[in-house]
Amino acid sequence: MADVKKQEKDYTAEVDTLLPETKSLAQSGNLEDAIEKLLVLEKQTRNASDLNSTTRLVKEIAQLTYDARNYTLLNHNIQVLSKKHGQLKAVIQAVVELVMGWLQEIKERDGTERWLELIETLRSVTEGKIFLETPRARVTLLLAHHHESLADSPTPASPSPKESKQTASDLLSELQVETYSSMERREKTEFILEQMRFLIMVAREKDAEKGQEGQSNAIGGGEGDWVKVRVAGRKVNETFLTQKENEDLKLRYYDMMIQYALQHSEYLDATKHYYKIWETPTIKAEETGRGREALEHIVYYIVLAPHDNEQSDMLHRLSIDPALVKLDLHYALIKCFTTAELMRWPGIEDVYGPHLRKTSVFSSDKHWDDLHKRIIEHNIRIVAQYYTRITLDRLTNLLNLSQRETEETLCRLVVSKTVWARIDRPTGIIKFRQARSAEDVMNDWSSDMSRLLGLIEKTWMGVNAAQAAQARIKG
Residue 58 to residues 65, 115, 161, 280: CA-CA distances in angstroms? Predict the structure, then answer.
């Protein structure tokens, strides 16, 4: 294998003469003789760096063996020709692309076994060659889809569905397509999305196995594959997805990122991904279809997300969005979280429960329990705004919780630094204001005095100006 060098001789005339002769020989049943003659001239053209003639001869060798349906000889010739001393890169690339064009026809006509043999030959030839990285990726994708089909429709001789899925995922994961300069951005993105899809499929398989009793070898579950999903997701250029022609890729990408976020209960990330989907022009235009569904999920997951500055900002921006006003129930739910008032859980259950429990989100008991937690946390933040001290019994009554649940929730918010609180157990009093030092008190007093003196000075100047104006009028 070598780079293109200066052509020493042109063998076009010899090739034009030989090709009809070898084709006639092959058709008469003398395939090996025809190939032998082609190989003799191929060596001469290769040594003379005649790229066009070498390409024609190599492609003719492959074509004759394919027409004769001699797949054993075809695989052998592909391997041998690609390893010839001084073989030109463009020649190898041409024959690989030619053979790839036959794959679908071979699979339909001659069966999967012949197809797999040719696939493995192409993978062997393209291995480690940068100039063939894109054909290798395409062939590997075909093989991965084959293993996926075995998992969906296993045969007696095929591996177990789990092994087939793992094999398919491993085949695609070994491809670092983000570094391929010869591959177009859209095709590159499609490959990364396929890698993510296979990883999610394997991760869910392992998680399901972990949930079964007696599966001692599934302790880790699919967490390792979920981490790979996140890593693969970072390779996708989200700016590229915003282009109109890539809308299908955008929807696929954010759908898988939502699956990842929900797997780890990252509700705020799920909200952001649904927001990206909702911003898509074709989705947003469907006010009663996918657009409404995306907006509803934004509402569901933003109220499920733990409180922080980013969540609060998104919540308030969503509350003033004109599109949300059209969804009465969801608008009212958002208003409950943006209003500085206590929410009673029994009342929330009565008003929103019948509708929310029918949705795909809150039909899950975990999500329903998380909503209850967010309402309790909201109530504690409101209490902390209006109270400096409150008895534990009174707070327990306001939250409709037991004393133990109240303490656990309050401790969780203190640890996350959402509120500042201290519990005096002997007296049963909770303090929501931190004790201030003498220095803090004096600083506040000094600041207040400075503002007061400023107001006095401003008032005095106003009085002087009015007296001067009256004096001029009298004079």
Answer: 11, 21, 40, 49
Q: Record the tokens describing residue 417, joined without a space.
A: 């630094």
pLDDT at 211 over 80: no
Three-state DSSP state, 2 = strand
| pLDDT tens digits along 347-403 | 999 999 999 999 999 998 999 999 999 999 999 999 998 888 899 889 888 888 888
Closest CA to 303 of 377, 231, 203: 377
| DSSP 8-state symbol, 389 | E
* Coil, helix or strand at residue 107: helix
Contact (Cβ atoms closer than 8 angstroms) between residue 338 and residue 314: no
| Rounded Cα distance, 429 and 447, in Å | 31
Q: Following CA atoms 165, 168, 174, 176 in sequence, which dihedral angle do they give, to the nearest 10 degrees?
A: -110
DSSP secondary structure code for residue 204 in this structure: H
CA distance 40 to 84: 12
pLDDT at 218 over 50: no
Cβ contact 352:311 at 8 Å: no
Cα–Cα nearest to 64, from 20, 10, 101: 20
> Measuring CA to CA, which residue among 157, 62, 69, 156 is closest to residue 106?
69
Positive or negative torsion for Cα 266, 270, 273, 275: negative
CB 2 within 8 A of CB 47: no
Residue 290 in tokens:
């996918």
Angle between helices 403-415 and 392-399 (to 10 degrees): 90
Residues 310-337: what's their mean pLDDT? 91
Tokens describing residue 129? 């060659």
User: Whole-prediction pTM value?
Assistant: 0.83
Query: Is residue 282 within 8 Å of 247, Cβ to Cβ?
Result: yes
